[in-house]
Structure formats: C-alpha cells, structure tokens
Amino acid sequence: MPRVKLSGVNIPAKSSSSSETKFSITKFTHLWALAQFNLIPDDIEFVCSPSFSPPESKDEWFLKIRPKCRDDFTQFDYISVHLFLRKCFGKGITEIRANYAIHILDTDGDKRFSAVCSNKGGRIFKANYEGHGFKHMAPRSIILEHNQSILGPDSTLNILVEITAYGNFESKYTESSMNKLYSNTEIEQHSLLSNMNSLLNTMENADISVVTSDGKTMKCHKLLLANRSKVFEAMMLHDTNEKATESIKIADFYYSVVEAMVRFIYTDKVDDVVLAEYATQIIMIADKYDLPLLCRIAEEYIASKLLNFETAIQYYEIADFCNCEKLKLRILEFILENSNKICATSEWQKMIATGSNFYRDVFLVMINKSK
C-alpha cells in the first residue's frame, strides 16, 4: 500500500482523515518610543506605554518604566522596565505564561542594554496583576549622557520588548479530499461571498443611484441597501424623495467613504488601507446609516492601530459624538495612563476650551478603576 508522510510519520495514503496536536506558541515584538525622557520630573514614579497586542489576538500587554530607581547598596540611579498583562481574552482564561526580552536601543537601532527572562514554560502573567521585568535595566546617568547616543530626536528613549507567549494544546482535524468530487476552490467560486463580490463589481440589475458630496454616482441594489440598513429600509418603504427619484443623495461624505460603506454592505469587509485614511468618517457614516458592525470594525482599527498621544483627543470627540462607548472608554483609559504627554498637545487645549463632557467621563472612569 502506498504511504504518505505527515508530521514526520508515515500513514496509509488511503486514510480518510488525520489530526495533529501541538502546543501553541506566539512570538511578537513591540517598540515603545518614550519621547522627552530627559524632561520627566523626578517625582513621577512610573510611566506606562499604550496597550499593545500580538497579531490576531485581543490579549493586551503594556510596559511600565520607572525613570529613576535608586539602588540602596550602590546608591546609583537606574531605570527599571517591567512587562504587564492588562487583559486576556478567552473563556475562563485569566493568566498567560510567557518569556520575554527587553532591550534599550541606541540611535542606530542597536540593542545597547538587554535583559532576558527564559524560564522553562515561561513566567506567569495574571491580568491586571503584578508584572515581571528588570529593576536595574540600565544606569540612568548613561542613558542621559549625550555622547552615549542613546536618546534619539526629541530625547526619545526606544524600548523594544520581545515576547514568547505559551498557549494551550491545539488540535487540528483534517478530512481527506481523496473522495471529494470538487476542491474547496471550485466550491468557493460559486459561494455567496463570491457572488456578492461579482455583483458589486458589475452592479448588474442595479435599480438605484447613490450620489456623493463630490458629485460622483454609483449604482446599487435597493434590496441589499434596505436589508443591511434600517435607514435605507425606511427610505424604500415610505413615500420619500429617494424612493420617487430612485436616487439617494449623500451630501456630507466623499465618494471614497461612501464606496467603502457600499462595499461593506455587499461583502461585510473594509480594506485596511481605507480604514487607515478614513476611519473617523467611516464611523460617522456607519452611525448615520445604522450599520453597527461597520462602526465596530472602524472602532477596533482606531483602538489597535491609530490611537496615540497626538490623536487621542480627536478620536475621543468622535467616539463621544457617535456614542461609541467602548471606544470612548478605551481612549479615556489611554489618556489617563499618558496624561502628562497628552495634556501638552494643542488638541487637549482646544477640547478643554469647548467645555465638553470630558471631565465627567474621566471622573467616572477613575471611580470604576478604584472599585
């Protein structure tokens, strides 16, 4: 009988199925650029990085640095860096085992100071609990010396963390294709998603026009618009101008944003390139036309890819305006963790001058954190 090789083991070629079990390991890195390190006051006990996650995971990690940590024995000042787990996602999961390495980079990107934890099976990180790291990561005096070329432009301290997270045992079952008449590719060619993509590209039998603020027009299908959006459904059911003229005028969004919304209505997908440029407008158009899933996709992208010191206030105002409560809470937590940086931005000054609900929201977050 002919045999095939699978995962180093010979099995009969006529096997109708196979399975494989392995220990899941996730390796990822994160670079934290801490600007104006030399200006951090001595009475600041620690500074936290924004949350970061491994690819294709919602687990949240962050770094915490103590800018000045005195060694009682030598009387030298060091900086300390520790790694923390903020949240871990998964039913019943409250901790993650991981090994890690922390590096302080110089202006050439080389690892000037390094410290490694490589315990067998990893250290245990519990969500919102004590972290692990290195108390004497690097001498503070050397970090601050100009001729050491460690601090970059704007006195930025670059800290790189490399994490190896150990998960559970994962099993994969594979059914043999030897008895199948058609391959997966042949089946997918006639799937609903494939047909919807084809319909989007050709707009065959389209029966309504959508006109954007920049005067461009695209053809659509009434049935699909009404099925995905209660707002569009109301336009089609009642005696509206849109129903009478078979034309929907969207005067407050450009073609690129409207096209992204229409593409989502047909395919349930939004391109990352589009989100990177139009995330705020996509949230607003999703809110206007009652497309909650589209709004959540844009919120997730902002929280994971776009949120930083300079954009936090802008995204807070959008989240507040569109009632994106989860995004707003995430931004408020980020602002509280990085208040010394964000309060120095011009966006912060503008927002305070408008007298928004920001103070109330921050107060509520602080109360919840203290419980």
TrEMBL record:
CDD domains, per the entry: BTB_POZ_ZBTB_KLHL-like (cd18186)
Segments forming domain BTB: 206-271
Xref: PANTHER family: SPECKLE-TYPE POZ PROTEIN
GO biological process, one term: protein catabolic process
Pfam families linked to this entry: BTB
Native organism: Leptotrombidium deliense
Classification via InterPro entries: BTB/POZ_dom, MATH/TRAF_dom, SKP1/BTB/POZ_sf, TRAF-like
Domain MATH: 27-163
Protein name: Speckle-type POZ protein-like protein
SUPFAM superfamilies: POZ domain, TRAF domain-like
SMART domains: BTB
Signal peptide limits: none
